[in-house]
C-alpha cells in the first residue's frame, strides 16, 4: 500500500479540467470535466491513509473515504464504488454539489500540512459516473416484499434517500410531491452548471423501476389531507424541506423587480428543462443579489448566464466570514461577478415603481454575536448606491406553516417540526420527519444522512407493527 499511497509528497493536487470562464458564462453546462481513470488513480494515491481519518469524521454521512481512495489508487474501481455507495444514496450528486472545502477536503490532513487536499469530491463523482456507465447500478431488488406501506411527503434528497432505504427492506413506498418532477431542490433549486438534471432523473428513474411510486403535482394538505395519508399508510415521513424565503426588511423591499432567490432559480431550471416560463430573466439588467451563502452564489452565476448587464453580490460580513463555499465564490468571481463585502442594504430605491438601485451601508465587524462571529455594524456616513433593475434576496429559508399540513404536529420556536433527536419520530405515532423541515435549512448531504437515519427507525417501527399483526393472526 505504501508504494501506491502517500504520493502527496511527489504528486501535486489536480482537479478535473475546468472550462474557461469566458466560455462557460454563455451556457448552463457543468463547468468541470471528468477524471479519466488514470487521473483518478493518481489523485487518490495522494491520500495519507490517516489512522484517524478526519475527512470521514467531517462527512455527515461518515463515508469510508480512505478505503475507497485506496481501492481507486489500486485500480479496483468497482470495489471502491461499492464502498462509496454503501453509505450514500447519491455519491455522484454529492461529488458535484457538496461544499467539500468546508467538509471532507477542508479537514484533510495533507491540506492542513500545506500539500493541498486530496480531490475527494472529484474522485467520488468519478466512481459513481463510472458505475452508471458500466451498468453496475441496477434497480432495487428487495429480498422479500412486505405488506405495510410508507408515505413520504417530499421528493427531495431526504425523501428520496429514505424511500430507497425503506424499499430495500421490502416496504411499499409512495412519494408525494407538489412539483411535476421528483428531486426537490436537486431538480429545481440547484443550477445545471453544478448539477445537470439527467443526473437526478436517472436516480429517480431507478427508484421508480425498483417499485417506488411517485404521486406528483400533489400538495399534501390541499390536494389530499394529511389525515387521509395516515389512514392509507402505516408510517409517514415528512421531508418537505424549507421553501419560505427570509424577507428583506428594508424600505422598498416590495418594489417591482425584487425577487426571492428560489423563485428565480426554479424559473431558470424550468426553462432549462424545456418548460414555457413567462417570468422575466436577468438579461440586460443590473442585478444585485443580497446574501452570502451557496444560494446567493447560484443566483449570481445564473444571472451571468442569463445575460445580465452587471451582477453584484452584497454581503454584510467580509469574505473570510462568508458562509458559502469558497470554491463557488471563486467561480463566480472568474465569471465576472462583483462582490461588495461588508455592505448591507438599507433600501431599494425605485423609478416609477420599479427597482432602480440599492442603497447600502458600509460595514465593519464589531464584537462577536451569539453565533460566535463578529457582528457587522454600520460605518456612519459611509453609504453608497448600486444600480439594480433586479434585486434577488438570498437571505436563507424558513419553514412554511406546518399548520397547513396538520395542526396536530408539534413545531419548534423556529417553525421546524419537533422530532425525537434519535428516532426522528414526531409527536404523532408513526409520523417521522427528516431533512431541512426538522433540521432547518442545511446541506443536501445532511438531508441524505437524516433520510437514511429516519428510514432505519421507521423500519424498526414497521417491523414491530408487523410482529403484532402476525401474533394476532396466529391467535
Task: Give keywords.
Fumarate Reductase Iron-sulfur Protein, Chain B, domain 2; 475 residues; alpha/beta; 35% helix; five-stranded parallel β-sheet; 3 domains; FAD/NAD(P)-binding domain; globular; iron-sulfur; 17 helices
Q: Could you report the average pLDDT, rounded to the nearest whole number?
A: 94
Biggest β-sheet description: 5 strands, parallel
- Our measurement of the CA-to-CA distance between the termini, rounded to an integer number of angstroms, reads 59 Å
Q: Which structural class do you get from the secondary structure elements?
A: alpha/beta
The first-level CATH class of the largest domain is given as Alpha Beta
Number of domains: 3
| DSSP strand tally | 15
Provide a concise account of the structure shown:
This protein has 475 residues and is of the alpha/beta class. The protein contains 17 helices and 15 strands.
Amino acid at each position: 500500500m505504501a508504494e501506491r499511497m502517500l504520493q502527496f509528497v511527489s504528486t501535486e493536487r489536480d482537479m478535473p479540467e475546468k472550462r474557461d470562464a469566458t466560455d462557460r458564462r454563455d451556457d448552463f453546462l457543468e463547468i468541470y470535466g471528468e477524471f479519466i481513470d488514470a487521473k483518478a488513480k493518481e489523485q487518490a494515491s495522494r491520500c495519507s491513509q490517516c489512522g484517524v481519518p478526519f475527512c470521514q469524521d467531517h462527512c455527515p454521512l461518515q463515508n469510508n473515504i480512505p478505503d475507497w481512495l485506496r481501492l481507486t489508487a489500486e485500480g479496483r474501481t468497482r470495489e471502491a464504488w461499492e464502498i462509496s455507495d454503501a453509505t450514500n444514496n447519491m455519491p455522484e450528486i454529492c461529488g458535484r454539489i457538496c461544499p467539500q472545502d468546508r467538509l471532507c477536503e477542508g479537514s484533510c490532513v495533507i491540506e492542513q500540512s500545506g500539500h493541498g487536499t486530496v480531490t475527494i469530491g472529484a474522485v467520488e463523482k468519478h466512481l459513481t459516473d463510472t458505475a452508471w456507465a458500466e451498468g453496475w447500478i441496477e434497480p432495487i431488488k428487495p429480498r422479500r416484499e412486505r405488506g405495510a406501506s410508507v408515505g413520504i411527503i417530499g421528493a427531495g434528497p431526504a425523501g428520496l434517500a429514505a424511500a430507497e432505504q425503506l424499499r430495500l427492506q421490502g416496504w411499499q413506498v409512495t412519494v408525494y410531491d407538489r412539483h411535476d418532477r421528483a428531486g426537490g431542490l436537486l431538480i429545481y433549486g440547484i443550477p445545471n452548471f453544478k448539477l445537470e438534471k439527467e443526473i437526478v432523473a436517472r436516480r429517480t428513474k431507478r427508484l421508480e423501476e425498483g417499485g417506488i411510486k411517485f404521486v406528483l403535482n400533489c400538495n399534501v394538505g390541499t390536494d389530499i389531507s394529511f389525515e387521509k395519508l395516515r389512514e392509507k399508510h402505516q408510517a409517514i415521513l415528512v421531508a418537505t424541506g424549507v421553501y419560505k424565503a427570509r424577507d428583506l426588511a428594508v424600505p422598498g423591499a416590495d418594489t417591482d423587480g425584487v425577487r426571492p432567490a428560489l423563485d428565480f432559480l426554479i424559473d431558470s431550471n424550468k426553462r432549462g428543462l424545456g418548460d414555457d416560463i413567462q417570468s422575466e430573466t436577468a438579461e440586460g439588467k443590473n442585478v444585485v443579489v443580497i446574501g452570502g451563502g451557496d444560494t446567493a452564489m447560484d443566483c449570481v452565476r445564473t444571472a451571468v448566464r442569463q445575460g445580465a448587464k452587471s451582477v453584484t453580490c452584497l454581503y454584510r460580513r467580509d469574505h473570510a466570514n462568508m458562509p458559502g463555499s469558497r470554491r463557488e465564490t471563486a467561480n463566480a468571481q472568474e465569471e465576472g461577478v462583483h462582490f461588495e463585502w461588508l455592505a448591507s442594504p438599507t433600501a431599494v430605491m425605485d423609478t416609477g415603481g420599479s427597482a432602480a438601485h440599492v442603497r447600502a451601508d458600509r460595514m465593519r465587524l464589531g464584537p462577536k454575536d451569539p453565533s460566535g462571529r463578529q457582528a457587522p455594524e454600520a460605518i456612519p456616513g459611509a453609504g453608497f448606491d448600486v444600480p439594480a433593475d433586479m434585486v434577488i434576496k438570498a437571505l436563507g429559508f424558513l419553514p412554511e406553516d406546518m399548520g397547513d399540513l396538520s395542526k396536530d404536529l408539534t413545531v419548534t420556536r423556529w417553525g421546524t417540526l419537533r422530532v425525537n433527536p434519535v428516532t426522528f419520530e414526531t409527536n404523532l405515532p408513526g409520523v417521522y420527519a427528516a431533512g431541512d423541515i426538522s433540521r432547518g435549512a442545511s446541506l443536501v448531504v445532511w438531508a441524505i444522512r437524516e433520510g437514511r437515519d429516519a428510514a432505519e427507525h421507521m423500519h424498526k417501527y414497521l417491523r414491530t407493527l408487523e410482529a403484532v399483526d402476525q401474533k394476532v393472526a396466529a391467535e
